[in-house]
Amino acid sequence: MALTTSLNAANVYGAMARLANRAQPEQAKATAGGASGPDFGAMLRNEVKSVVDQGKATEAKQAGLMAGKADLVDVVTAVSETEVALDTMVSVRDRVISAYEEIMRMAI
Question: Considering the chain, what is the average pLDDT of its residues?
Answer without folding.
Answer: 79
